[in-house]
Write a structure and sequence with these properties.
The structure is a single chain. The protein is mostly helical. It has helices spanning about 1-35, 40-70. Helix 1 (about 1-35) runs antiparallel to helix 2 (about 40-70). The chain is rod-shaped and about 55 Å long.
């Protein structure tokens, strides 16, 4: 039960982090389109976005496994 609630908190954190990183990617893309950022910066933002997305999905998976373990 404790694992489930800990993972729920972790998922909330990763969800907030994902939203922030997604916003950063959008801003970086806009800057690139305006000629104010390099393509490398856009690719680095995409990499961070993907890693954060993987963390969020892993947390969702763990939360589901913890819920199943309760039954």
């Amino acid at each position: 039960l404790v694992s489930y609630f800990n993972e729920e908190d972790r998922q909330t954190y990763f969800g907030q982090q994902f939203e922030a990183v997604q916003h950063n990617l959008e801003l970086t893309t806009d800057l690139y389109q305006a000629g104010l950022a390099s393509y490398t910066q856009v690719e680095e933002s995409k990499e961070i976005w993907l890693n954060t997305h993987v963390n969020l999905i892993s947390s969702q998976e763990a939360l589901t496994a913890n819920l199943i373990a309760l039954y």
